Amino acid sequence: MKDFTFTAYRRYLEVVKSSYSNILRFDEFLNLDSLPDSFFLIRHDVDRRPQKAVFMARLENEMGIKSSYYFRAKPNTFKKKIIEEISNLGHEIGYHYECLSDTNGDITMSMKDFENNLEQFRKIVSIKTISMHGRPFKSSDNRDMWRPSENHSLLSTKFGISGEVYLDIDYTEIAYINDTGRNWDSSLSNKRDKVISSVKCDFRNGEELYHHLKEKYYPKIVFQIHPERWSDSITEYYTQLLMDTTVNFLKRFL
Ligand SMILES: [Zn+2]
Predict the structure, then answer these.
(1) pLDDT (average), residues 97-123
(2) If you measure from the C-alpha of residue 64 to the centroid of ligand 1, how many angstroms do you get, rounded to a whole number?
(3) Residue 118 sits in a domain of what CATH number?
(4) pLDDT-based confidence at 139, cuts 50/70/90?
């Protein structure tokens, strides 16, 4: 089966549904008093082409699955109707922030930018969790705006945020599986999107991943999926493949 198509995605979810009983959104997960022995969290970063996110959100909804969609606050992704529709399908909407790279590393300005964007999102939906956008070609790591502990505590005290999904989750025992670079091997192309985990989970191909999911090889999983990388038409599949290959090639020189 061709990987990174909606058909393949549905096939992964079918097996996930039968193996994992705790499929949670990040806002639900971060509000738990104690962690279950097993869980499966699906995180989507909506970096571009938000219409793709709608298709994925509908597919998950049809299957009775809830996940979290993190939207960038950029004109081509911040689309009120799309955000509303995905939220109405039972999914969580989070803010995929990039304030530090947008303000060229100025922490004070980035905090202001964060506050303004959060306010825009909250005119549409409630926002409880956030995730940083990687911006591979910019020098700032967006998570650094929370490194000063006083800023990090503002997340809950001032902004009413339950957690930043990189900083506020302990990934030590979690398998972090992601499609960044359009492969299932994080050592190949992933510059910033990494977490500290002792669970090794790189796969040579989708079949290998599929069988690990089916056997419930990992009890705790964060499945990080970019909807725009997945397609159902052949032309689209090859256009996206070419783009991902080019970006992976360029990242080698960073
Ligand atoms: Zn991103």
Answers:
(1) 97
(2) 25
(3) 3.20.20.370
(4) confident
